[in-house]
Amino acid sequence: MFAASSKLNTLRIGVTMPTVNAYAAPGAAEPLVKTTIERRELGPHDVLIEIKYAGICHSDIHTVRGDWGPQQYPLTPGHEIAGVVTEVGNEVTKHTVGDRVGVGCMVNSCGHCVNCEKGNEQYCLEGNVGTYGAVDRDGTITQGGYSTHVVVTEDFVLRIPDGLDLDVATPLLCAGITTYSPLNRWGAGPGKKVAVVGLGGLGHMGVKIAHAMGAEVTVLSQSLKKKEDGLRLGADHYYATSDPETFEKLAGTFDVILNTVSAPIDLNAYLGLLAAGGAMVSVGAPPESLAVNAFSLIGGGKTLAGSMIGGIRETQEMLDFCAEHGFGADIELIPAEQINEAYERVLASDVRYRFVIDAATF
Ligand SMILES: [Zn+2]
Ligand SMILES: [Zn+2]
Question: Is the pTM of this model over 0.90?
Answer without folding.
Answer: yes
